[in-house]
Amino acid sequence: MDPITLGVLSLVILVALIAIRIPIGYSMIVVGGVGIMIVNGPLILMSQLKTLGWGVFSNYGLSVVPMFILMGALASRAGLSQALFRGANAWLGWMRGGTAMAAIAGCAGFGAVCGSSLATASTMGKVALPELKRYNYSGALATGSLAAGGVLGILIPPSVVLIIYAIIVEANIVTMFAAAMIPGLLAVVLFILTIAIYVWIKPEAGPRHSGVDLKEWRDATIGMIPVAVIFGLVLGGIYGGFFNPTPAAAVGAALVWIYGTIKGRLNLAALFDSLKETAGTTGMIYLILIGAELMKIFMSRIGLPQATAEWIANSGLAPFVVVAILLVALILLGCLMDSLSMILLVIPFFWPVLVEINGGLYMGAEGSGFGMSTEDLKIWFGILALIVVELGLITPPVGMNVFVISALAKDTPMSETFKGVLPFFGAELVRVTILFAFPAITLWLPQVIGAW
Fold this sequence. Notes:
Blueprint: H1 3-19, H2 24-40, H3 42-57, H4 64-77, H5 80-92, H6 98-114, H7 117-134, H8 139-150, H9 160-169, H10 173-201, H11 214-223, H12 225-239, H13 245-262, H14 268-302, H15 304-313, H16 319-333, H17 339-357, H18 374-391, H19 400-408, H20 414-437, H21 439-451
Helix pairs in contact: 1-2, 2-3, 2-14, 3-14, 4-6, 4-13, 4-14, 5-6, 5-11, 6-7, 6-8, 6-10, 6-12, 7-8, 7-19, 8-10, 8-19, 8-20, 9-17, 9-18, 10-18, 10-20, 10-21, 12-13, 14-17, 15-17, 16-17, 16-18, 17-18, 18-20, 19-20, 20-21
């Protein structure tokens, strides 16, 4: 069989396996392993497997992953979500739709110490849904805003998916964190504006409430200070050069544990559960990494990424049109698989295409395609890719955040939740358009920090 035909057929089989709900890690291991055996024989595969695990897991950059996962697991049990939502609601709750806006702000704050979209949606959903119901918010707005707010966890630093992307394209993790800040804040602003427009059109969907008295407002505001301190010490320590991301994640996890212990929410049982959750999630990620590496080896040996890059480079399409096509492909793939799997599976194919269009991998040189260096291209495309990957969390048929919130809001049909996320989906498309049209928005902060 022609190698390119074999590669395309393998991708079709992989998507089919994912579509029938076989875990992505196992699917990639099977397709990649069988593909290598077909091309090079079983002995080559056995030889490859001897050193593959060490080659993948010895990457020091991966050591940050379990630490940030532990930080998020501890934060979910330490009561940070309640403090964040209470503080945001004290500031915003008096407005029409204000409690839903507070849920968005709470999701953003919790994402800053969690780094997981599903954990953000689940934890904030448990906290905010009762309040939204108490103030008679419509089921669509209540569940839709929480499902959409959960996606903020994937982009606002620290983000596990952002770290994995940086490792794949060999970008600086600290630089990627800086690049994600402004796009992440832009999402918060657009989501809050979306709620304001929603309740302007449908006032009954988000009623006002009387707000809080001065003492309650002061206590709620003070309650948010520990989150600001943790976030500031972790990211401030990184940008200030006091430690790199792995020790920063360890410091963050320790601070969250201290906070939870002082508040009486983190006993030994909660700590054990957090460690167990961290081990399970990390194991799942590392299994997917092994599968992705096997797929990468297989596809490289049959030359599919190189052939695809050459074909697109010679197609005559404008570079920015190619990026737009790749982003649309990511949105469509988001209907079939989760965000981490998409990054691991798709970026190794897409990135060589962009490098080829940009004139080759010349570090620091101005590329002929996009008018930016390869390093800037990594940053700009990475942020765009993560934003459209977020959309998969709120689009059918997967829509993991929608499923999480629907499991919590049993009295709201899932169809209502999908209706509720549609305005936020539109807001995300606006954000993608802005960042696509003006790359300087994404690149400005990394350049400022780099110069400083």
